[in-house]
Amino acid sequence: MRILITNDDGINAPGLKTLHAIATEIAGDEGEVWTVAPAFEQSGVAHCISYTHPTMLAELSERRYAAEGSPADCVLAGLFDVMSDAKPDLVLSGVNRGNNAGENVVYSGTIGGAMEAALQGVPSIAMSQFMGPNTAELDDPFEAAAAYGAQTVRTLLDKGIWVQSGYRVFYNVNFPPVAATNVKGTRVSIQGLRENTGFSVEPQLSPSGRRFMWVRGGDQQIDTGEGTDVGDNLAGYVSVTPLRADLTAHDLIDDLKERLA
């Protein structure tokens, strides 16, 4: 199996090393793992692509490249340049430092990389490690992802639903913020929403008097309930959520047609 890996934390991020180990186990002795990751951190860029300016791509070592662009740029570079002779069988994006559950899904560059692969017709999985008080005490905060990553990917490849037409399904996996020995299992979860919290801005004045702002995140430990990604993660479970790039609110279509008739 030929696997392309990327992330949004950057080419030197520790989570990418964890992902490379997972991908190497999945690929097997006869497989290949290729890395195309951002040269610098790209957290929060979602599905951004560098449409209006070129992206520099540098080969760092065999099958390892850094791109001055977003995770979606990296996937495009991997599919149409680095691996143009034969597209990968699978794209893995992550392992992100921090959860990409709940409302974080729509901001995540990790999700954006997996989404681009799905739009290009390549099976893809986004993987993130939820962080919290318990992971802060671990020598390796990615311990849960390292222990359960390959198993989760294998299960999805074997038993997952891989829609082959229209907006293709890709998977969002979040590992819980606990030690590997405390992971309780895996749950299929819907995307949660942390109510009354989210991103905001904090303005500051520089010494020269110029006004800047810092974007601040909300409380990540708010439980969104059983059956949701955040809730299941906080309860100690690996969450698996099927996603599509289609943002249509399908449940409102018929009602809206009647209202606007």
UniProtKB/TrEMBL annotation:
Major location category of this protein: cytoplasm
Record has Hydrolase as a keyword: yes
Free-text cofactor note: Binds 1 divalent metal cation per subunit.
Ligand binding (a divalent metal cation): D8, D9, S43, N96
Keyword flag Cytoplasm: yes
InterPro entries per record: SurE, SurE-like_Pase/nucleotidase, SurE-like_sf
Keywords of this entry: Cytoplasm, Hydrolase, Metal-binding, Nucleotide-binding
GO MF annotation list: 3'-nucleotidase activity; 5'-nucleotidase activity; exopolyphosphatase activity; metal ion binding; nucleotide binding
Domain Survival protein SurE-like phosphatase/nucleotidase residue range list: 3-194
Places the protein is found: Cytoplasm
Catalysed conversion reaction: a ribonucleoside 5'-phosphate + H2O = a ribonucleoside + phosphate
Gene Ontology CC annotations of this record: cytoplasm
Annotated EC: 3.1.3.5
Cofactor(s) required, per the database record: a divalent metal cation
Function (record text): Nucleotidase that shows phosphatase activity on nucleoside 5'-monophosphates.
HAMAP family recorded: SurE
Family per similarity comment: Belongs to the SurE nucleotidase family.
Name this polypeptide is given: 5'-nucleotidase SurE
Species: Qingshengfaniella alkalisoli
